[in-house]
Amino acid sequence: VQLQASGGGLVQAGDSLRLSCAASERTFSSYALDWFRQAPGKEREFVAAISVSGSRSYYSDSVKGRFTISRDHAKNTVYLQMNSLKPEDTAVYYCAAKRYYSGGPSKTPEYAFWGQGTEVTVSS
Known about the structure:
- The chain is mostly beta strands.
- The chain is built from no helices and eleven strands.
- The radius of gyration is 13 Å and the shape is globular.
């Protein structure tokens, strides 16, 4: 399975963006998916997770209430709707697929596939 992350861009504080993580195969529908981000000079940070069915989700405290993760099985795509963006949301965002939803980040070896990243820049 290949994951293609897209939707990043340059926006102003308070704006919205929707990121997409599209999979190359329908088997993607059997994977849970997490979004991570990595800002320049910082470690990778967990952002959000969604279960295989899409019925469960989990967010980091830094994005809770502003970001929404969802998935469309028909399109083999997981979305990250980002509202009320802040300069501190500036980062490269990555999606990663894993077999089991854990209600939070998992250990790195548990991720079967990673997307290539899409850059989000929020200006103040």
